Amino acid sequence: MPSNMTHLLLLLLTFLSLVSFATTEAQDDPFYLYQFCSSDKTNPNTSFQFNVNNLLSNLSSNPTGNAQFYNTTITGETPSDSIYGLFMCRADVSSQLCQQCVLDATLKLSSECPLSKQAVIWYEECMLWYSTALIFSTMATTPNSTMQNSGHVPNPESFMSLVFSTLNQTADKATIDNKKYFATKEANVFGSQTLYCLVQCTPNLSPHDCRTCLNDAIENISGCCEGRIGGRVLFPSCNVRYELYPFYTIPSSTSTPKLLPETKTSHADSNFSEDPVYLSHNCSNKTFSASNNTFQAYHTTLLSNLASNATSSKKFYKTNVSDSVFGLFLCREDLPSGLCGDCVQNATHQISLKCDRSFHEAIIWYSHCMLRYSYRNFFSKLEISPMFSELNTTNKDKEQNFFTVKLAKTLDQTAIQAGDSDERYGTNSAKLNDLQTLYTLAQCTQDLSTEDCKGCLGIMIGTSIPWSRLGSIGGRVLYPSCNIRFELFQFYRDIDKTTGTPTPENVHLALPCVNVF
Ligand SMILES: *[C@@H]1O[C@H](CO)[C@@H](O)[C@H](O)[C@H]1NC(C)=O
Ligand SMILES: *[C@@H]1O[C@H](CO)[C@@H](O)[C@H](O)[C@H]1NC(C)=O
Ligand SMILES: *[C@@H]1O[C@H](CO)[C@@H](O)[C@H](O)[C@H]1NC(C)=O
Ligand SMILES: *[C@@H]1O[C@H](CO)[C@@H](O)[C@H](O)[C@H]1NC(C)=O
Ligand SMILES: *[C@@H]1O[C@H](CO)[C@@H](O)[C@H](O)[C@H]1NC(C)=O
Ligand SMILES: *[C@@H]1O[C@H](CO)[C@@H](O)[C@H](O)[C@H]1NC(C)=O
Ligand SMILES: *[C@@H]1O[C@H](CO)[C@@H](O)[C@H](O)[C@H]1NC(C)=O
Ligand SMILES: *[C@@H]1O[C@H](CO)[C@@H](O)[C@H](O)[C@H]1NC(C)=O
Ligand SMILES: *[C@@H]1O[C@H](CO)[C@@H](O)[C@H](O)[C@H]1NC(C)=O
Ligand SMILES: *[C@@H]1O[C@H](CO)[C@@H](O)[C@H](O)[C@H]1NC(C)=O
Ligand SMILES: *[C@@H]1O[C@H](CO)[C@@H](O)[C@H](O)[C@H]1NC(C)=O
Ligand SMILES: *[C@@H]1O[C@H](CO)[C@@H](O)[C@H](O)[C@H]1NC(C)=O
C-alpha cells in the first residue's frame, strides 16, 4: 500500500508542476526550517504505518480548496492506531505556494521519518503536525524550535524592549482585533529602519489558548534571540517571528506594478565587464607623523606583497609586515585571476595616492575588489564601518509589495549560502515576473567564521537597506568585512561548479550594448 501513496504523490507532483507552468506568477519554493520526528516508532508494514501514509496523502490533497488550515483524522481499527493530523499555511502565502509547501512537507516526512508516531515539520510558509494524541483541542509548545539571525544589534536593551512590545501588540491584534489568529505589525526603529513582526496560531485553539501560546513564544524570544536582529520561536500550536527586513506581504490597497523600476547607476556593469570600476575609499582620520620612515617602508612592502599575490590566482590574501602593518585584498570570487590582479594593482596604486602613506589605516573599494590596511591587526574581526552604499531611496514610506519581500528573502538566502561556503561567497537569482530576474551576490572576507559572515551580512540586510523606502531595484552595500549587491541584470559570472573557475569562453567577451546605461 505504501506504493499507492507514492503513486498518488507522484500524480500530485505532476499536477502541481503543470499548474506552475501555466501560471505567470513568479516562482517561489517553500523554504524548509526544522522537523521533529519522535523516537517512539512503529514497525514497518503495520496498519499504523499504513494510516500515517493515508493521513499524509489526505493532508497533501486538501489544500486544493484555498484552505490555509485543515485537520483530519484517520480512525484505526484500534483506538491506538488512530492518528490525528493538521497543516497550517502562513496566512499571507498564495494558495499555490501553500499547496506546494504542504506537499513538500508530506514528502519529506514520509521519506525521513516514515515510522515515527509523532512528527512536526516547519517551513517558512507552512507547518504540518501529526500525532497519535488528539492534538486538535490542546495547546502544545513541545516539540519546538527557535531560530535566530546571526547579526547582533548595536543597542540590545532598547531594541529588545521594542521587539517585545511590538510582538505583544501583534498578538493582541491576532486574538482581540481581527480574531484571525494571524497578524503582522511594523514599528520604526533606528530612525530609518522598520521592525517587522508576525504571529500566528492554529485556528483550532480557543482565543485564550492562542494568547497563552503566543505569550509563551514571545517570552521564549528572550532565551534564543536576545540582542539579535531577527528571531523566531516555532511551537506546534503557534509561532512568532521578527526581522528588520520584510518577510511577509502586507495586503496592499494599490496594485503592484507589472514591471519593477530598475536602478540606473552611472557605472552599471555586466558579467562581461573587465574594467575595475572605482567606487569609494576611506582614509582614517589619524595619521602618523609624516617623518615616520619605518611605517612608510613597511607600508610600501605590504602593498607590493598584496599586488604580487593578486596575480597568482588568489581571490583573497592577507599578510602583515613585521606585525606592524596589516593588509588584505578580496576579489569578487567569480573573477578570472587576471582581472583580480588588475583590480588589486590599481587599488594599491590608488590607495597610496588617495590616502598618503602616513594614514593609520585605509580602505578602497572597486566593483571587482577591495583592499585595506591598518597599523592594527584586524584579521578575523567583523567590522561594519566605514560603510559605502549605493541604493536608490525615496523620502516616502512605501507599502511593502511582493517584490521587496522577494528581494529580502533572496538576499537573506544568498547571505546564508555565502556564510556556509568555504569561499564566503554566494550568488542567487530569482524570477520576479515574465520579464525580470533578480540577481544577488553576497561575499565576506575569507578570514571571517561562518557565524561572523552571516552576522555581518545579517546586520547589512537588516540595518543598511532602508526597506520601506527603496525606490528601485539595484544597488550595493559595502562594509570592510562583507558586501552585498543586487541587480536586475546578471553582473557576475557563473562559476563552473566542477572546476570552481569561471568558464573561459565568458571571460574575454566584449561588453554587450544592452547592458550599458
Ligand atoms: C513490507 O512490505 C513490502 C511489500 O509490500 C516488502 O517488500 C517489504 O519487505 C516489507 N518489509 C518488512 C520489514 O516486512
Ligand atoms: C480525507 O479525510 C476526510 C475525513 O477525515 C475525508 O472526508 C476525505 O474524503 C479524505 N480525503 C482524501 C483525499 O482521502
Ligand atoms: C478538526 O478539529 C476539530 C476540533 O478543532 C474537530 O471537531 C474535528 O472533528 C476535526 N476534523 C477532523 C476531520 O478530524
Ligand atoms: C521545548 O522543547 C523542549 C524539549 O525539546 C522542552 O524541554 C521545553 O519545555 C519546550 N519549551 C516549551 C516552551 O514548551
Ligand atoms: C504584553 O501584554 C500583556 C497584556 O496583553 C501585558 O500584561 C504585558 O505587560 C505586555 N508585555 C510587554 C513586554 O509589553
Ligand atoms: C519558554 O516558555 C516556557 C513556557 O512558558 C517557560 O517555562 C520558559 O521559561 C520559557 N523560556 C524562556 C527562556 O523564556
Ligand atoms: C530611483 O527610483 C525612482 C522611483 O522608482 C525612479 O524614478 C528613479 O529613476 C530611480 N533612480 C535611479 C538613479 O535609478
Ligand atoms: C576620528 O573618527 C572617529 C570616528 O570614526 C571619531 O570618533 C574621532 O573623534 C575622530 N577623530 C578626529 C581627531 O577627528
Ligand atoms: C612609526 O611607525 C611604527 C610602525 O607602524 C609604529 O610602531 C610607531 O609607533 C610609529 N612612530 C611614531 C612616532 O608615530
Ligand atoms: C605573497 O606575499 C608574501 C608576503 O606576504 C611574499 O613573501 C610572497 O613572495 C608573495 N607571493 C607572490 C607570488 O608574490
Ligand atoms: C586604474 O584604473 C583606471 C580606470 O579604471 C585607469 O585609468 C588607470 O590607469 C588604472 N591605474 C593602474 C595603475 O592600473
Ligand atoms: C552573462 O549574462 C548573460 C545575460 O545577462 C547570460 O545570458 C549569460 O549566461 C551570463 N554568462 C555567465 C558566464 O554567467
From TrEMBL:
The keyword Oxidoreductase does not apply. Residues 1-26 form the signal peptide. One of its GO terms (molecular function) is kinase activity. It comes from the Eukaryota. The keyword Signal applies. Keywords: Repeat, Signal. It catalyses: L-seryl-[protein] + ATP = O-phospho-L-seryl-[protein] + ADP + H(+); L-threonyl-[protein] + ATP = O-phospho-L-threonyl-[protein] + ADP + H(+). Residues 30-135, 141-247, 276-378, 384-491 form the Gnk2-homologous domain. InterPro entries: GNK2 (IPR002902), GNK2_sf (IPR038408). This is Cysteine-rich receptor-like protein kinase 25.
